[in-house]
Amino acid sequence: xxxxxxxxxxxxxxxxxxxxxxxxxxxxxxxxxxxxxxxxxxxxxxxxxxxxxxxxxxxxxxxxxxxxxxxxxxxxxxxxxxxxxxxxxxxxxxxxxxxxxxxxxxxxxxxxxxxxxxxxxxxxxxxxxxxxxxxxx
Length: 137
Ligand code: CA2
What we know:
By secondary structure, the chain is of the alpha/beta class. The protein has helices spanning about 20, 25-35, 50-60, 80-90, 125-135, and strands at about 1-5, 40-45, 65-70, 95, 120.
């Protein structure tokens, strides 16, 4: 089974700032833990701060992977393009947010991803990615 985690803008800063919202661990360390915990899965990871690169990656994997775990970060709330890409591909997408976006500012409570996601997980910290993998299993 092939699953990719796609993270959007600023998630490369995880563990460096705002630990009260996003935790103290950087994503590369967490990703290594996921690889160890799910050895049976071919798990890959892509992060970009650039909207078009995220769309290109969705097109690249969206017809030959079994699952996509997408945290589009701030683009969640702004990007019609990423929303359209999620709609246009075949591979199911599980949307993940580390924080509880519904307990935060009003602008974070709309997602262009959710209408076409298989499911949405938010507010469980990094554990949300683990839960998303389990949902595919
Ligand atoms: O809770 C999430 O996972 C978010 O997708 C994170 C985004 C935010 O814009 C969404 O509303 C919710 C922000 C990611 C920024 O991450 C940082 C991590 C450390 C330091 C600064 C930013």
